[in-house]
Request: fold
Amino acid sequence: MKEFVARAHIALADPKAVIGPLCEHMVEHGAEVEEHGGVHVVRHGGAHVRFVQEGGSTTVDARAASLEELYYLRMMVASHILEFAGGQNPAIEWSGDGGDLQRPPNFRILQVAGIRDVTPRMRRITLSGEDIARFATLSALHLNILVQHPDLPEPQWPTVGANGLIRWPDPQRRPFFRKYTVRSLDLAAGTLDIDFVLHDDAGPGSAFAETARPGDRIGVVGPGGGGLVEADWYLFAGDETALPAIARMLEQLPEGARGRALIEVADAGEIQPIDCKAGIVLDWLCRDGAAAGTTRLLADAIRDTPFPEDGSKIFAWAGCEFEAFRAIRSHLRQERGLGKEEHLVVAYWRLGRGGDEVGAEA
Reply:
């Protein structure tokens, strides 16, 4: 199996003050670190980075099983070295594989192929392009849409600098990144669908959905973000912002799966058909005039849901407003006793900070 390798020689005034915190940070994100005679080796999955002090230079040797994984590794190392080096701003230039990258390997330019309203407040935009299959995985349901700055007449796309970090032609007017779920794909047609909630106080993502037209070119980055985990019994919960993710997961569940899905929407007009063949009880929770983010509908419904006690493997997934996220996460961890691998709770937005801002994940 081919191994992709990149190397950089970086002058650091105090290598220990930089490499030490970098390694500690990676351990917090699931990496394993070894240290022998001043040589640090960081392993994460099949990739690893080796830091060696040679005279006045620190040699960084990065290795990965794919060019895309190496790209992420180079970017991670460079960004954290610059962060922990304080105001030193050391020069970083990679050699080896990936040196000819013009665009980030997880970046694609797609085109708007169709637009339709699923409900009065949910708009579906169909995008077409090459390599759509990369977004088919259910372990990473999301992508980031690049919403272009309104002051620019033409879209700007990211490039990769010699240091492995993203560069923009006009950094002061770089696009807004907004995370959305890939609702469905048609691999034969080369298209994917993304559903947007239309907000009265539209943020960049909602404003994009309102103004998009067929033929528009759209930059996307991904896939990424947590998705479906194999289990016997599932709990899904979310408001409109999480509805596309929940619907996609429900439609992909095996027929033998069991559980409950709780979906909060504005009113009965926002209920939409979901083709779920599994044994999932689906309940729609309507706010009926209450503003989004101001009720306890989701948290209370989860609290009232009986969990199986027959040894079934459980997985709970929730996506909602930030305060509901905190209440649900606390309940699942402290009162239900779910472990880290048994739940994923995501704050898709935060009341008072725009309709499509992401808050937190745990």
